[in-house]
Design a protein that fits this description.
The protein is mainly α. Helix content is about 65%, strand content about 5%. The protein has a domain at about 10-165: Oligopeptidase f, N-terminal domain (Butyryl-CoA Dehydrogenase, subunit A, domain 3, Up-down Bundle). It is an enzyme of class 3 (hydrolase).
Amino acid sequence: MTQLLTRDQVPTQETWDLSLLFSDQAEFEAAVESLKQKVDHFHQQYKGQLTDVELIIQSLNEYEEIERSKNHIQMYASLGYEVDKANSQYEENAVRLGFLLGNLSQGLSFYHSELSAISTELLEQVKSTPEGAPYQYFIDEIIRYKDIRLDPAVEDALSYLSGNLYHSYALYGATKFQDMTFDNFEIDGKVYMNSFNAFEGDYEGHPDFKIRHASWDAFHQSLARYQHTLASNYINRVQTEKKMATLRGFDSVIDYLLFDQKVTRDSYNQIIDTLTKDFAPVMQRYATLLAKEHGLEKASLADIKMPFTKGESSHITIEQSEQMLLDAFQVMGDEYLAIFRQAFAERWIDYPMNQTKSTGGFCSTSYQGPSYILLNWTGLLSEVLVLAHELGHAGHFVLQYREQLAITPEPSMYFVEAPSTCNEVIMCQYLLAQDIDDRAKRSLITEFISRTYYHNMVTHLLEADFQRKVYQAVDREDVLNATVLNQFFKETLENFWQGAVEINPGAELTWMRQPHYHMGLYPYTYSAGLTIGTQMGQRIAKGDTEAIAQWLDVLKAGGTLSPLELAQAAGVDMSTPRALHQAIAYVDSLLDQVESLA
């Protein structure tokens, strides 16, 4: 892989357009000053004054406006930095955002405390009025959190310190993208440039055995140099979460984090335990077939992401991928498809790889505005599934924000990956329905398994199992360090693969590669989402009009329902392992097709 371009060298038309939020830096800075003034006024106007229904409703109206303004400012300040960490203005915006959010939190923290101190009866009166009814879900959350809120002075201090208490994500990003360097490697006299982006976007899944293994060794040897720094950062994060859990009356940090998600400990454990026990054999079967396809005695973790089928991988242009998506998602109807068209026409998507850009992909939606998508485009056919995934997030939150207020709670993290993974299933079913030969169909199915199910139900499941070990150790007050984290991850890998895949040296460092651990109990939710998405995607791809209507209603509901209620409204029961077993059986049936098409 050649040296990545700098940000100013990539085609502008392939980058996202942040001017849809603010036309320039000056307009952004003016909005920041305006927001500060709004918060100051809000503090002076309402602190100690929330005594009657009319004034509470008035305050809710103004708080809604503040949250809308803050949302757009957060987007603009953070997204520029995500694609170009070498840009000093973007870095300054991102740093200043941290200060701003800390100050805003301090100015607004009284509001939640004082609303929580109001009697439930008075809050119910607010909900019962025509003017207060739109805020019912926000008020319900205030009531739900009453029992775990601390003294107002303590809440005020915690809000002010939140940027420092939870700085681990930013520190992880700075280490990963600004400090880390990776050793290049040489094969047959040719030197290959190595980096986080190059390894994860190209070499790790390269069809050439020598490139895969040499890059793996160089990457992980380099990664190991930073293990103690990143371990210290991560351990500080989980210990801070544990202290917060204790302050708020939780015996376990896991229960504390699940409270936010409206998910029980049993539901959380059910997903990790069921998939580790029953999905692992299916993916061990995939690994065995992969090794056989390539003439290997056994696949290793340095091989597991290589293309299943031999020969030149299918490539696709950005324009071709966009047209494929428009064709595939016609089944969803005009309202949903219009979001895709707008995303393409208005440059919501940032495609190209460049130096200091964040790896992977994500979607970040502004309130009633653009839904920005970050990609690292490789041109492989699998990128269509990635884009379908991120557009699933975009469609979800664009529809939600049209229907819900800015302060209506977000849907639980448990559900948030369902719309994105549903789109991957729809996209793949569409491609399989095209007039393609058996070889192409086999290639597509294995790409689908690798991209959708390996990524969401293996990569993130392994993260979830590792993360659970870490939080359990924190609850026990065990000593944690890089060596312990490495051992936890190695145990997770060995337990899942059961000898079917060789665990290469360096694989124990995989916990260093993802930022998810700095986002609470996020990894397991990919499996929850894909379980829901598998059922919905299959029904929608068949043109089931009832399923499509149900799904659109669920997407618009946002956080007005709990995650299991959202799934139930779409016709998926997540209260038992049945839906998980149906998803597992679906992947097993895909492997049956892979063997029959050989």
